[in-house]
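Any chance you'd type out a single protein's sequence alongside its tokenized fold?
>
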Amino acid sequence: MAQYFFHKQKLSDRFGVSLVRFAFKFKAARERYNFKFKFAFTNTLSKKYSYGRKIDYKFIDIDGTKTETIFFKNEKSKYAIIQLHGGAYVYGYNDSYRKTAKRYLKTNRQIQVYSLCYSLAPEHPFPKALEEAIDLYKYLLNEGYSSDQIIIAGDSAGGGLALALGLAIKDRSISMPKAIITMSAWTDFLADGESYEKNKEKDPFFGKGTTPLPKEAYASKQDFRNPYVSPKYGDYSSFSDLLMFVGSHELIESDTLDLANKIENAEIHNYEGMFHVFPLGFNKMASSRSAWRVIDEFINKQIRSE
């Protein structure tokens, strides 16, 4: 039986939720006063980006697909985290995900983070991104990492892709990664879950009055029940340890809860009243800080048991 944890909302969370709701409700104001929200998210991938004096980075090319990798200078990397970014499969890797990569890096100085710049829909629909993720996983194995030294992490669409990657690895009889971490994973293109009705008035990202998620752009003509498109419908027997985060006001809350309840070795953290990918608020909200404490503990526990 999966482990389930429900976290009560704190004062700073309520303020963060109010700020996000303001940003969505008053889009014109957000665009006019962009500096007020820039700390939270940016779609820009800067040509010159500083990770700080102690961190080095480089891009590697695997069959034409770029991956940015970051690591501590003068440290030998023993473990790898594959980061699969969100963006509904149509928005690319950017400076916001560089912040996320840096936060993953700080969980342990022996980690190296690999952020895949996978091909985007609709120009490159399924299965292009999944095949590129498989190629990166194989690359790490060929570089000398054992599967027990690799953790896969993803948020939103990247969370769905992380789970699809795990399923594909299992189905191809490749050694499974040590663990998978997801934040607000998009796992059900059929939208067949209780939260799609329960939270349609609550979710500022994808609820009533917002732009629908671009399912067809990625899935193209695929059956939405294909588990590589909608991992909710996959077979999770003999699967990696799984850590999942979701907010209780997310339209896609059920995408996490319904899937995780099928997995004995899953650990689910549901945060009261929180919105999509709230852990990317980092230290600005109590829920974000709490989520990263759980991630820190989980990753180091996985490393210790390697």
Summary: Strands lie at 3-7, 55-62, 65-72, 79-84, 111-116, 150-155, 179-183, 241-247, 266-271. The first strand starts at residue 3 and ends at 7. Residues 283 and 289 are 5 Å apart (CA to CA).
